[in-house]
Amino acid sequence: PKEIFLKDYKAPNYAFEKVDLKFVLGEEKTLVTSSIHVIPKSSGDTPLILDGERLKLVTLKINGSPVPEDNYKVSARKLHLTSLPSSPFDLDIVTEIEPQNNTSLEGLYKSTGNFCTQCEAEGFRKITYFQDRPDVMSKFTTRIEADKTLYPVLLSNGNLIDEGDLADGKHYAVWEDPWTKPCYLFALVAGQLVSRDDSFTTMSGRKVALRIWTPPSDVPKTAHAMKSLQLAMKWDEEVFGLEYDLDLFNVVAVPDFNMGAMENKSLNIFNSRLVLASPETATDADYAAIEGVIGHEYFHNWTGNRVTCRDWFQLSLKEGLTVFRDQEFSSDMGSRGVKRIADVGRLRTAQFSQDAGPMAHPVRPHSYIKMDNFYTVTVYEKGAEVVRMYQTLLGKAGFRKGMDLYFQRHDGQAVTCEEFLAAMFDANDVKFPTFPLWYAQAGTPTLTVTTDYNADAQTFTIKCNQYVPSTPGQPKKEPMLLPLAVGLLDSHGQDMRLTSVKDGSSLHNLTSAEGDFTTTAVLHVDKAEQEFTFIDIAEKPVPSLLRNFSAPVRLVSDVTNNDLFFLLAHDSDQFNRWEAGQTLSRKLMLDLVSAQQKGEKLSVDSAFIEGIRSTIMDTSLDKEFVAKCLTLPGESEIADLMDVADPDAIHTIRRYVITQIAANIREELLKTVEANRSSAAYDPSHEHRARRSLKNVSLGYLASLNEPEIIDMAVDEFKNATNMTDQIAALAAICQNPGDARSKALADFYEQWKEETLVINKWLALQAMSDIPGNVENVRGLLEHPAFDIRNPNKVYSLIGGFCASAVNFHAKDGSGYKFLADVVLQLDKLNPQVASRMVSAFSRWRRFDEERQALSKAQLERITSMNGLSDNVFEIASKSLA
Ligand code: DPP
Ligand code: ZN
Questions:
Q1: Which residue has its alpha carbon closest to ligand 1 atom 2?
Q2: What's the rounded Cα separation, in Å, for the pair 714 and 727?
Q3: What is the pLDDT of residues 646-694, one digit of tens each?
Q4: pTM (2 decimals)?
Q5: Given Cys at both, which of 116, 295, 485, 839 links 547, Cβ 3.0 to 4.6 Å?
Q6: Which atom belonging to ligand 1 lies closest to the Cα atom of 375?
């Protein structure tokens, strides 16, 4: 397989000004006619190289005449055209494809009988020959012809300009998109769908029709998605002044979809799980995910579609920015602090671990074999942190100025991350020379902070040391700009006024001209070693460092456990209040893991238990925040902090700490469950979501005690639940303990929900993630269950992805988990390389484990890479993991 490099980028030699597509959709074959108006951009006889995969070329014409055989060459992945006219010409290509046999779910494929498309990143080349790259932007029209009974609804991008009946029970529709776009934003849907219709009136008074399409029985489940869409449209106008630019916006829900959703111009296509929700079938987390992703795809209309990427290395230009925008949207719709905690939690578990492993890559990668493999937590979530840092450095108003300039300069263009950075800094007339390194250097910086209070001078000094670890291909790193947000708490737990800070020899005033003082200072850490001194600090403060997680770094500090308990009780920064508790938990768990490994007696520090008790009893706190504080760091987060990860010891210790907490605050937990039961009618408001989350976390703790009366209580909660949030939480609580109650609850749940695919996926995931010893055999059994289908990505993510998330079983000492995953990956790779490649990623951290486990997983990785006919997708991940 061929590796592609950012440094080799060359602008295309031919522009495609206008593209007229015609699809004749059929059961056996589909005929695609593409008529392209081509504009040569360079002089001389440069070949035009088109991408195309699994296509049957039927005819090829230039300016109406067949292209002579000597002037073109077809290979497995390209169509080379030579001896081309030097002035603009029309290229007509007819290809034949078989969407019904397309199991890769990219290009044009069928899902439950309907036709649909997924073209990002490089799926359009499975539809027709094209310059399949984002810097080729064209105006598209799309004519669709299909059987009218089987496919009554025909959709594509833009506006419907014509429709009508044809002979033989067929009909047609013609769609015209007035905006230029790259082919990755092309979409087509044809099938038996009905829509929920609503509208949105934009800030300039235009009425936009909104339609969410699903199979008829699912229409009632689209109300939340519709409301989320309207909120997102309003939010983008209010916060960024961005208005929708067509009179119609369609969303289609599809059950078979590799990713979450896709922002195709005016025809978003979504994985069903991110559209469909009812209180009975979807959890509060599902509701929140739908709101976030509906927002995300809508926001792409400006950040992604109106301004797109020059090449795929720039993916974070649109994804980092759009994730940041959806995070801000969700924060404004719900609880900002809790949202930040959830986002950082995900960054820290998934992205930090990627950044420390063989797949580590910069936010803007330097090379790839298969672009699909770079839709990663680094490009998305770390990319969003980079965007957030601009806002932290420039302020909200400064960030908005940068966004305005970005659109002013680049609307209608395909650009790079440099252009975004330039717009941000030019609009604010600043320069931060080391900031661009965030795009180029992989690896999570470690920021080490030591502090010193000088009572005589009344100064508080913060000494910083930053270190960016080496990563594959990048042995040496430079220091980069880390915005470090700092607050200082006085002995009453109040924020101190910060008036000025010295950075080396320069003194910065932190008071504004109006005399407003600040309680959080943003320090610009951009050297390997650096000192900052706060002036006029009247007493020894407790520092609150990296407030709101102001930079994506690993923070190591000399803050004591006593300081952490103080911050947990008092910090005005909600994120850092939570973080203080997490830091204490991580220290405790790491100490216990080491005690366990040495065979020492285990015990949990009573101050820790008291900290938890006072948090759960503090009625002034948001209950969702309390639920977050009660949740211990995950097993993989602890594993990442060890020199040699010991999944068995970590698992034992996490269970041990949970049961110790439960036994010690049993009464408080019981009271919390009592006090926070839901009313019969589901209330989606923040207050009620928060009550449910606290009740369910408490129930989970109690069930860990495995006492008969508590299990009875959990079974009652399960039976009486009126919504999925409570029902699945009760089921999960029961499932912690093997036995009759568990088997019965699982069987009852299946009976109740077997017709609801999305609910049954939760049932699969719950069993797959179980820590019951030897669970691999249950999971192998579930592969044969009628509820499972290896062709459906959601089911694979639930069952196989779920299994890999259970460290004790995936990393079972006998290697059974590794063998299971390799078996599935090899089977899956023949059907759907993108999904297979996501699954094989679970192997990538194999070097983190002991020698026996390393040998076992390495053998499975080698078994995979030695397979003939392996996809580029799986090859890239597996071979880089072995490198
Ligand atoms: N561009 C898509 C997204 O919204 C990829 N599935 O992230
Ligand atoms: Zn996106």
A1: 262
A2: 10
A3: 999 999 999 999 999 999 999 999 999 999 998 778 999 999 999 999 9
A4: 0.99
A5: 485
A6: 5
